[in-house]
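New here. Your pick:
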Amino acid sequence: MIALLLVLVQGADSSGFDHLKHKALFPSCATCHAGAEAKGAPLWPAASSCAACHDGKIEKAVASVQEMREKVGALILG
């Protein structure tokens, strides 16, 4: 939870995701990160939920689930 708060203060993290930009649309962390509040729920949002806006027409298309997992894994593993 502390890491998530730091990301909100800093804006874009090293993956390029800007939490501050998205906070206006999703004021609760649990909107995208259900696992932050509900035991057993996924911590990371499904790419399909992001694709509602990030479809390549409204906003830049999101990476595939595999690409996102590789990027997050690289961040975690350093």
Notes: Confidence is low (pLDDT under 50) at residues 4-10.
